[in-house]
Every structure is written in C-alpha cells, then in structure tokens.
C-alpha cells in the first residue's frame, strides 16, 4: 500500500462522462489498497471562459485588486470539478471528500495569478486518508497570508499535484493527460513525434521552460527539488486496464542518467509562441547600458528571456531582448517613456510575431557541433535566425513565427527523432 497522487488535466475532466471514468480509475487504485489524493484541473475551457468574462468588464487600472478578483474567479473552475469528482466517486461507493486550496491549506505568497506555493499543511488530508477516504484537492490554487484565494499561473494544477506529493512524501505522482506521455516534440504539431519512455529531470526542466506545455515548469522544479517520482500518462486508456500495466505506461521523469539516455544527442524540441522581441536602437556603447535598460524593465516586474547586444559602430549599439507577449506593450511604453530619453537612444522598436525554437538533450554535453548542425538545418530551409541562446543542454533560436512549424519539423528530422506514424500510440 502506498500514498499515490493522481492529477487529471482539463480534457480528462472535460465532461461528466470523463469525470465518471476518472472516478472509476481512482476507485480501482483505491481498491488495490493505495491511499489516494487526486488533484483535478477545471473542466476544459472553463478557466478560459471565466477569464474572458473578466476581460469584458476589465478595469482601466490593472492593479492588485483586479488580480485578486481574477483568482477568486478562476479558482471556481477547480472547485466545481473537484466536487464533481467527489460526487462521482461517491456514486461508485467510495468515501470521498474534496477540499479547496485554502481548506487544506496550500499556502502561497500574494502574487495573484502567478502565486508560488510556500507550504502545505497536510494534517487534514492525512486524517481523511487514515479514515479510508479518497481525498480530492483542487489544482491551481492556494491561499495567501491574508486569507485571499490565489492561483498558480496557467497550467498550475501540475504544480499543485507535485507540491502535494512532495509535502506528503507520496510514493509517486502520476500526471494523467490527453497524450500518453512526453514526446520528442508536441505530437499535435509533428505527428511523427515519438513518446519517450524516460526523460531525465534536467531535460524535462529545459523542455518545460522552453515552452513544452505538457508540464508546467514549476511542477518540474518541485519534482527536482524534492525528488518526487513523476510520470506522465494517458487518461484515455480504458479505466479498467491492469493497474500494473497502467502504472508503468507513459513517460517516467528520471533523476539518474543512464547510458541509453546519453546516446541521444537531442532528446526533444520545444517551441514557444508566447514571446515578443524589443530592440533599443542606437544606444551609446558605454558601461551601465544593459543595466539601465534591463533594470527599468525588471523594476516593472517584467521577466526578460533571450538578450543580445550587437557590435558597436561609431560608439553606438543595438540592444535586443525578449519578454512575454503579455508584457510587450508595457515594455515598449516604458522604454519609450523613460529609458529612451534618459539614454539618448535613437529608437525603440518591437516585434511580437516571433517564436523561440529549442533543441534539448543531455547528449549535447558530450557532442560538439550540435548547434551548428541546427543552424545549417534552418538555413537549408531559408529560415533566418534573429537571436540565439544556449545552455549546456539546450540551444534556442528566435525566428519569425511563420516558420515555426517548418523549423520544428525540419529539426525533428535532422536529429533523427521521427518515427513511422503507425507506431505512435495515443
Ligand atoms: P492538461 O489539461 O492535461 O494539463 P495540457 O494541454 O496542459 O494538458 O498538456 C498536454 C498537451 O501538451 C498535449 O495535448 C500536447 O499537445 C502538449 N505538448 C506540448 N509539448 C509536448 C510534448 N513534448 N509531449 C507531449 N505533449 C506535449
Ligand atoms: N485550469 C487551469 C488552467 O487552465 C490550471 C490547469 O489546468 O492546470 O490553466
Ligand atoms: Mg496542463
């Protein structure tokens, strides 16, 4: 008997029929003798629907008070799906109870819409488990020090599940979703993508941070920090398949590097359409410029990703960086208003039709020439690289977004990641 955490995403919870399926699957695990904590997402489309309503009524000043209400609103999606799952379990004859984040309590800071979990008090959940109940804990939400409801950022139910698993020292956290594991790239973009049996924690972290939305980045960070055994698998298999077969399906996130994993130079390709490029042109090339530009951006709470500074010509240079698209206008306004006059720069321009494509693999540590192979592959397809950034196990390029799919497919082929379509099992 083990303590197991299951997480079910929005599509997996998308209708009462699917919720019934989830309940039957959870009941199967419970009847096999496991202590079960289940973390559901809102039913698919619900978070978008709620946030769109808020947008219709959006105030002119987007301050903290607005963020608070957005979280109050969005958290209802998970509250509803959690209660429905408890009801579906009760209908299966299982003693089940659901809790909102604040009832557990999952304590976070007060950064509304992107709060971070600080601690989890698991006493109530443990008492219910000891009494033989299945416990359902809402994904995506927590409570700040003043008792306000917070949410953890889009896709945050993954993080709730892993954090609960870490706090409760669960034997395993199983992330059930609408694909049957982590693929070499998003199988919806490249149908030839193949499922990885195992992926190293480091690679998963890079893939998630470079845009692979299959796991929210913070969930991978938590898994790494607390060594939570983590598996991504399908919720669309028949609920009554053999439990051991189910428990070993999907993709395992591993913490040890084995020899097989070293063999692949590139394990996966991630892409991200959420960024925009900002360039400050004709900046005087003198010490302190990067600080003056990026300091102002950081003070406005805007995260910066890829950065490049061009060679200086006649004492002037161009400085470019990427930010999240949601922060694009704010960053342009800020630079034009404050920084441009203070620096004596020539202009500030932006482009929000870019994307970032990244190749990821721990094999890159032991192979040279991987980046140049990537650049050649893109140039063979006539794709211009605007920015480059690298780490030990990843190379990312910023390109025009209209070439994104072409680039991902070409790189997938170049690094021998394709498989024949008929071997894909979903
Ligand atoms: P959930 O609602 O279950 O949390 P998400 O939509 O957040 O599901 O994540 C699953 C989706 O992630 C898949 O449907 C797939 O399109 C996308 N995805 C992106 N990159 C990958 C990848 N490398 N492997 C598998 N799925 C991926
Ligand atoms: N319901 C939230 C979202 O749509 C959280 C999640 O699904 O993980 O982002
Ligand atoms: Mg998700």
Describe the structure in your own words:
Helix 1 links the parallel strand 1 and strand 2. The relative contact order is 0.11. This protein folds into two domains: 218 residues, Acetylglutamate kinase-like (Carbamate kinase); 165 residues, 2-Layer Sandwich (VC0802-like), CATH 3.30.2130.10. The C terminus is likely disordered. It is an alpha/beta fold. Helix content is 37%, strand content 25%. The chain contains 14 helices and 20 strands. The site of aspartic acid (ASP) has 13 residues, from helix 6.
SSE layout and pairings?
Elements: E1 3-8, H1 16-31, E2 35-40, H2 46-56, H3 64-91, E3 96-99, H4 101-104, E4 106-108, E5 117-120, H5 123-130, E6 134-137, E7 141-143, E8 149-151, H6 157-167, E9 172-177, E10 198-200, H7 201-209, H8 217-226, E11 230-234, H9 243-247, E12 251-254, H10 259-263, E13 268-272, E14 275-284, H11 289-299, E15 304-309, E16 316-324, H12 328-343, E17 347-351, E18 354-360, H13 370-380, E19 387-391, E20 394-400, H14 404-414
Parallel strand pairs: 1-2, 1-9, 2-6, 3-6, 9-11, 10-12
Antiparallel strand pairs: 4-5, 7-8, 11-12, 13-18, 14-16, 14-17, 15-16, 18-20, 19-20
This protein binds adenosine-5'-diphosphate, aspartic acid and magnesium ion.
Aspartic acid (ASP) binds next to helix 6.
């Amino acid at each position: 008997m083990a303590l197991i955490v299951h997480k079910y995403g929005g599509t997996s919870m998308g209708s009462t029929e699917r919720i019934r399926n989830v309940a039957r699957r959870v009941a199967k695990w419970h009847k096999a003798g496991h202590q079960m904590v289940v973390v559901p997402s809102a039913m698919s489309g619900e978070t978008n629907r709620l946030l769109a309503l808020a947008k219709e009524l959006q105030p002119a000043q987007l301050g903290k008070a607005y963020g608070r209400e957005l979280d109050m609103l969005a958290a209802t999606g998970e509250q509803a799906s959690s209660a429905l799952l408890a009801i579906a379990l009760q209908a299966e004859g299982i003693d089940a109870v659901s809790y909102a984040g604040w009832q557990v309590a999952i304590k976070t800071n007060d950064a509304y819409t992107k709060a971070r979990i600080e601690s989890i008090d698991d006493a109530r959940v443990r008492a219910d488990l000891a009494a033989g109940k299945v416990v359902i804990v809402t994904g995506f939400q927590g409570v700040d020090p003043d008792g306000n409801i917070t949410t953890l950022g889009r896709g945050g139910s993954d993080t709730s599940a892993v954090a609960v698993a870490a706090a409760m020292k669960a034997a395993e956290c199983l992330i059930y979703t609408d694909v049957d594991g982590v693929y070499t790239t998003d199988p919806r973009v490249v149908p030839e993508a193949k499922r990885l049996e195992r992926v190293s924690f480091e690679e998963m972290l890079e893939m998630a941070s470079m845009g692979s939305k299959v796991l929210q980045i913070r969930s991978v960070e938590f898994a790494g920090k607390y060594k939570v055994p983590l598996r991504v698998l399908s919720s669309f298999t028949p609920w009554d398949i053999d439990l051991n077969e189910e428990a070993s399906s999907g993709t395992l996130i591993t913490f040890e590097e084995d020899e097989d994993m070293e063999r692949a130079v590139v394990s996966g390709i991630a892409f991200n359409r959420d960024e925009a490029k900002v360039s400050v042109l004709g900046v005087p090339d003198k010490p302190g410029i990067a600080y003056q530009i990026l300091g102002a951006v950081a003070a406005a709470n805007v995260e910066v990703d890829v950065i490049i500074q061009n060679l200086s010509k006649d004492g002037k240079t161009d400085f470019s960086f990427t930010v999240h698209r949601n922060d694009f206008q704010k960053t342009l306004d800020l630079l034009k208003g404050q920084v441009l006059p203070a620096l004596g720069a020539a202009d500030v321009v932006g482009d929000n039709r870019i994307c970032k494509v990244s190749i990821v693999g721990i094999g890159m540590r032991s192979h040279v020439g991987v980046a140049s192979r990537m650049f050649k592959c893109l140039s063979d397809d006539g794709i211009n690289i605007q920015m480059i950034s690298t780490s030990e196990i990843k190379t990312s390029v910023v390109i025009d977004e209209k070439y994104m799919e072409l680039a991902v497919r070409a790189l997938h082929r170049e690094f021998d990641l394709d498989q024949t379509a008929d071997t894909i099992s979903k």
